[in-house]
Write a sequence for this structure.
């Protein structure tokens, strides 16, 4: 994948925002008085790091498609695209999902319908209903992976349309018209979901746990709405691609015009976050979408486009520390919440939501969480993610007429699939409460909680 200046730096920022958000939730800001109200509000805005991840994914994954479109080349191989996405996303996600399920059954015994939620996560369909949005009880952030996989599927579909519309006379005007049409359809679809899939008030809210929180989020959180966030990155990459081919912009690049624009846009991102500290949910949004859409995501897409053309600022963003964090950011995102919950159960009993009033204790607990999370993410990268990613990148389809012969890799994959399905099923049989069917059971559970 082509390297874009500044992308690693923003990935590190997104990752640290999410970590700060979840760790900050454990500190009781109300106990610390009004002087800390600002920081309490900023902790909540850290959740927008998720939107930044989606914009980054849209930007980077659409780059080969935009490059081929601009050069008049054929559509990139969708088979290679699918294999590489699977090799990047599935291994680490499945390990965390599997471990989290086993621990959730052991320690979060009150969580409803755990087995069915696990299978929804396993098939990346968790994001299609509030009952399964959080696939396991103790690793909340896994919810976003389902939405991201849907965006991975929609990206090539929309790009096929772009190549068809572009025909032999491709250019930026046709691309702009096409993406305006795509966004229009996405917004119409999102509005349909908002109007026709509203949830009732029964068991609706974070006071009812993760399932209640999911019911509060959805349908404002939905796969189509998050593709709109993803699309801001796609549009940003389209701009960067056409800007890179404009000879008239070379002088502006040398003068640092794009550096200045990127700096202003970065300040705008900070301004959005500061202005929304302590604000009500969905207070700054279009169609009640989360994370200040489209202002935040759109600004982030433009920032990435400008950083890609910058002379100095992009390299400053991509400093060695930022590159190190970006390299293991996926593992950090997947593991950190599990680590928080595990330490809450075993070492820091007050490391619950708003449970820590002592700043020193919170700093100690946060330091341990970060140390363990960085260790697990580093281990995941070097022993699991990087080897399998390299294998996926090296994969090539068989030549026509070549007979298929299953090798050791196929046997290993089949064995892993059996373990991922069989072990949780056996565990569930020993814990009957995990076998309850989701929807009828949720109704009873909600009534009991209400």
């Amino acid at each position: 994948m082509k390297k874009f200046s500044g992308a690693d730096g923003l990935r590190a920022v997104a990752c640290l925002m999410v970590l700060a958000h979840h760790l900050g939730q454990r500190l009781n800001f109300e106990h610390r008085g009004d002087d800390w109200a600002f920081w309490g509000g900023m902790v909540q805005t850290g959740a927008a790091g998720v939107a930044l991840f989606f914009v980054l994914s849209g930007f980077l994954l659409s780059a080969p498609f935009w490059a081929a479109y601009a050069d008049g080349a054929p559509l990139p191989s969708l088979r290679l695209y699918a294999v590489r996405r699977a090799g990047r996303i599935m291994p680490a996600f499945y390990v965390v999902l599997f471990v989290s399920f086993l621990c959730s059954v052991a320690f979060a015994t009150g969580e409803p319908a755990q087995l069915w939620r696990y299978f929804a996560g396993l098939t990346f369909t968790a994001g299609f209903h509030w009952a399964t949005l959080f696939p396991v009880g103790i690793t909340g952030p896994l919810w976003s992976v389902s939405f991201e996989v849907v965006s991975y599927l929609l990206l090539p579909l929309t790009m096929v349309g772009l190549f068809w519309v572009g025909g032999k006379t491709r250019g930026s005007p046709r691309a702009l018209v096409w993406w305006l049409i795509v966004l229009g359809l996405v917004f119409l679809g999102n509005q349909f979901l908002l109007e026709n899939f509203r949830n009732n008030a029964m068991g609706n809210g974070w006071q009812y746990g993760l399932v209640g929180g999911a019911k509060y989020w959805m349908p404002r959180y939905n796969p189509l709405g998050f593709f709109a966030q993803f699309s801001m990155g796609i549009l940003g990459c389209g701009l960067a691609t056409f800007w890179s081919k404009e000879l008239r912009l070379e002088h502006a690049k040398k003068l640092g015009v794009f550096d200045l624009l990127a700096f202003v846009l970065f300040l705008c991102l900070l301004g959005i976050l500061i202005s929304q500290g302590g604000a009500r949910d969905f207070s700054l949004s279009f169609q009640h979408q989360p994370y200040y859409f489209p202002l935040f995501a759109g600004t982030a897409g433009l920032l990435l486009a400008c950083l890609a053309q910058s002379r100095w600022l992009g390299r400053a963003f991509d400093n060695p520390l930022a590159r190190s964090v970006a390299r293991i950011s996926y593992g950090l995102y997947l593991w950190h919440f599990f680590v928080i919950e595990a330490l809450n159960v075993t070492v820091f009993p007050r490391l619950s939501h708003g449970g820590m009033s002592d700043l020193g204790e919170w700093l100690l607990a946060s330091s341990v969480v970060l140390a363990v999370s960085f260790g697990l993410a580093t281990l995941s990268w070097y022993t699991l993610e990087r080897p399998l990613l390299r294998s996926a990148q090296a994969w090539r389809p068989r030549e026509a007429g070549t007979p298929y012969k299953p090798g050791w890799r196929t046997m290993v994959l089949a064995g892993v699939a059996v373990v991922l399905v069989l072990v949780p099923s056996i565990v569930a049989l020993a814990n009957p409460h995990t076998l309850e069917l989701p929807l009828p059971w949720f109704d009873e559970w909600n009534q009991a909680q209400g």
